């Protein structure tokens, strides 16, 4: 599933369309349009608007225009294709076969060029003026104090709290497992059980994970990643990793150094 880092790659890839004016809106898939608008309304609202900026909050990508804001969600298998080029050519998260039948939404611009969302499983979606107030602060930007408050209020397992997009936005399964691995914290600890020094350590680990894995090319490039298989050993200390479900997601963690 694309996480914060992949969506940021998409956002950067979309920068060349800033300043372009929409000439054609392809919205062939009713299901893919969220927020109660059907294809005719979306087409009429977006025709002729100019893209003024790209933005991102967590896993939500935004295209600002001189009219409405366009929200793009990529779900498990969504990809972004700008001017015919896939923004991530070897995305881990879905089939890379180029099948135009999977094109769920497209904008074509007056001076050429295009933005296409290709999504085999249709788990993503497009929404006008998405309610960003439903999202917590972006995981790459949240500062230590609000981060501590996000954890303090919850008896949920630490991992589940970190994946709750309404509390902190952008972290998915791989980024959370890697951050907890680096911070040396158990994913099963109640979020509110963390001491101040542990909160600081986790906040720093998330920042470092985003920076390092962003530089390496995505959420799937973590130090823990090669050990995400049954019976694998901790890359740090050689202990047999645990494989459990936390927050409904398969979780790999080390019972020796993650406490
Ligand atoms: Zn370990």
Textual characterization of the structure:
It is a single chain. This protein has 259 residues and is an alpha+beta fold. It has 2 domains: 4-133, MutM-like, N-terminal (N-terminal domain of MutM-like DNA repair proteins); 136-253, Helicase, Ruva Protein, domain 3 (Orthogonal Bundle), CATH 1.10.8.50. It is built from 6 helices and 12 strands. The protein has helices spanning 4-13, 39-46, 144-152, 158-163, 173-183, 196-216, and strands spanning 22-26, 33-34, 51-57, 60-65, 70-73, 79-82, 85-86, 103-109, 114-118, 125-128, 242-246, 249-253. The strands form 3 sheets. It has a 5-stranded antiparallel β-sheet, with helices on one face. It has a 5-stranded mixed β-sheet with strand order 2-10-5-4-3, covered by helices on one side. A hairpin with a 4-residue loop joins strand 4 and strand 5. The radius of gyration is 19 Å and the shape is elongated. 38% of the residues are buried. The mean pLDDT is 95. Bound molecules: zinc ion (ZN). The site of zinc ion (ZN) has 7 residues, from loops.
Quick overview of this protein structure:
The protein has 259 residues and is α+β, with helices and mostly antiparallel strands. It contains six helices and twelve strands. 25% of the residues lie in helices and 22% in strands.
């Amino acid at each position: 599933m694309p996480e914060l880092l992949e969506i940021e790659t998409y956002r950067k890839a979309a920068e060349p369309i800033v300043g372009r004016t929409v000439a054609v809106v392809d919205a062939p898939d009713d299901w893919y349009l969220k927020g109660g608008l059907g294809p005719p309304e979306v087409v009429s609202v977006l025709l002729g608007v100019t893209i003024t900026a790209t933005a991102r909050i967590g896993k939500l990508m935004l295209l600002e225009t001189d009219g409405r804001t366009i929200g793009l969600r990529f779900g498990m298998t969504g990809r972004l294709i700008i001017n015919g080029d896939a923004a991530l050519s070897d995305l881990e998260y879905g089939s890379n076969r180029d099948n135009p039948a999977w094109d769920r939404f497209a904008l074509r611009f007056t001076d050429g060029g295009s933005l296409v969302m290709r999504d085999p499983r249709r788990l993503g979606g497009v929404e006008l003026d998405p309610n960003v107030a439903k999202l917590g602060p972006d995981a790459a930007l949240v500062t230590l104090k609000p981060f501590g408050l996000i954890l303090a209020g919850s008896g949920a397992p630490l991992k589940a709290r970190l994946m709750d997009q309404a509390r902190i936005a952008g972290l998915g399964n791989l980024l959370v497992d890697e951050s907890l691995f680096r911070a040396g914290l158990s994913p099963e600890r109640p979020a509110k059980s963390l001491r101040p020094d542990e909160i600081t350590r986790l906040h720093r680990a998330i920042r470092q994970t985003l920076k390092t894995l962003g530089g390496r090319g995505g959420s799937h490039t973590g130090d823990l990643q090669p050990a995400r298989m049954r019976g694998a050993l901790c890359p740090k200390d050689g202990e047999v990793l645990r494989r459990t479900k936390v927050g409904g997601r398969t979780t790999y963690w080390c019972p020796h150094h993650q406490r």
